Amino acid sequence: LAPWVPVVGLEIHAQISSNSKLFSGSQVQFAAPPNSLVSFFDASLPGTLPVLNRRCVEAAVMTGLALNCSINKKSLFDRKHYFYADLPAGYQITQQRVPVAVNGSLSYSLCIDNKMSQMVTKTVRIKQIQLEQDSGKSLHDDTRSQTLVDLNRAGVGLMEVVMEPDMCCGEEAAAAVRELQLILQTLGSSQAVMAEGQLRVDANVSVHHPGEPYGVRTEVKNINSIRFLAKAIDYEIQRQIEELESGGTILNETRAFDSKLGCTVPMRDKEGKQDYRFMPEPNLPPLILYDAKSLPANMNHQQVINIDWIHERLPDLPSVKRKKLVEQYGILPEHSFTLLNEDGLAEFFESVVKQTQMKPKKVIGWILKDLLSYLKQHSLTVKESPVSSFLLADLLNLLEKKEISSTAAKQVLAELWKGEGKTPLEIVKEQKLELLQDQKELEQICQAVIDGHKNE
């Protein structure tokens, strides 16, 4: 038999970084007391009406532009009906027919055979980006056989990024999501912290033989970790291949990933397609956006969103930042990926380079081998590092001036990790480490004595 071809597509829900919800003035805050951030509209009290949040629209437009999308100057809102305890209205306001952005692309890089020095760039197509409400959160108490509902998250603004099925394994999907996460964080359109549910991924997976139509797909829902995403997809691909090769069939179903068992488990079947009864949202007019050409002369700029104005203010995206790091400091491309993948590490590196006389190529070694390995070993972020960029630069200056040896520098760094507020020079004197200059003089004296004995 011909080899199996896996196909992977993603649907990603990113929580928009805004002070208030998509259609109400309720505050957005993680881990607030249950049901403390719920407006009358969020609870779906009769007579309440949605008011669109400008910030959420700007974030969606900004994200669409960063992902090379076409921005629809006219987009529409729809109601998607389904009934669950954490959806008080019995429907979700979304953009089914005409979303805010369509037809984009995302380029991402991944290693070949886990070698950072061998990287390949791939592209996944973006089908659309749409605005929609988040639902509340159901908390299942198995002990008491009851479900508690927290509506703090109900109505929070989401961007749903739908990717075409252009990927073929968990590694590719993980790399694409990580790149998207970096872009969202760079733009400020979403904090995209997966541990807090600000970025949730649904993966659609199927397998087929070359030249044949796509196979029946399964959907793995609500994956909240990039590492788990790769594992869930790879497991599901292998499960489907084994099922088909043993004469079984693949069910069109929704599955969940059990991180403890390392496998996907069935949630519900999708054979009978659910009728969401989509209908136009009657309480919201079409969303109209403008550019420099279409903006009316007498229009109040405060009341409209100008696509060109947002485009002009886009920051450098991660791909541009990596290129600049390589060109400016002469570091390896794979090192630029590591610097950007760790939050705040690129800024730390540049700060050290500005304060030291050591060449950037040497600095990067200390940053990646010593600083980063210590932080990961102790589960610390760059911002939590007990060694500041100033202290590390001070230490590297001593080393660059050849006032201390490399071995002594390692000893000093080990003391700096204790976070006692001492400078590298203070530690050198306190530990009575040999200064390299004194060591050289001692070596010269010893050599002279040796030479004298030889002459005798």
Q: Which helices and strands occur, and which strands form pairs?
A:
Blueprint: E1 5-15, H1 54-66, E2 70-71, E3 74-75, E4 78-81, E5 91-94, E6 101-112, E7 115-133, E8 137-141, E9 146-150, E10 157-163, H2 170-187, E11 199-208, E12 218-223, H3 226-245, E13 253-258, E14 263-269, E15 279-280, E16 287-288, H4 307-312, H5 318-329, H6 333-341, H7 345-355, H8 360-377, H9 389-400, H10 406-416, H11 424-430, H12 436-455
Parallel strand pairs: 12-13
Antiparallel strand pairs: 1-10, 1-11, 2-6, 3-16, 4-5, 4-15, 6-7, 7-10, 8-9, 11-12, 13-14
Helix pairs in contact: 2-3, 5-6, 7-8, 7-9, 9-10
Binned, the helix content reads 25-40%
Morphology call: globular
- Which oligomeric state applies? single chain
Could you give the count of β-strands?
A: 16
pLDDT averaged residue by residue: 91
Low-confidence stretches: none
Domain Asn/Gln amidotransferase: 347-456
Catalytic activity: L-glutamyl-tRNA(Gln) + L-glutamine + ATP + H2O = L-glutaminyl-tRNA(Gln) + L-glutamate + ADP + phosphate + H(+)
Protein name: GATB amidotransferase
Organism: Cardinalis cardinalis (Northern cardinal)
In short:
The chain has 456 residues and is of the alpha+beta class. The protein has helices spanning 54-66, 170-187, 226-245, 307-312, 318-329, 333-341, 345-355, 360-377, 389-400, 406-416, 424-430, 436-455; strands at 5-15, 70-71, 74-75, 78-81, 91-94, 101-112, 115-133, 137-141, 146-150, 157-163, 199-208, 218-223, 253-258, 263-269, 279-280, 287-288.
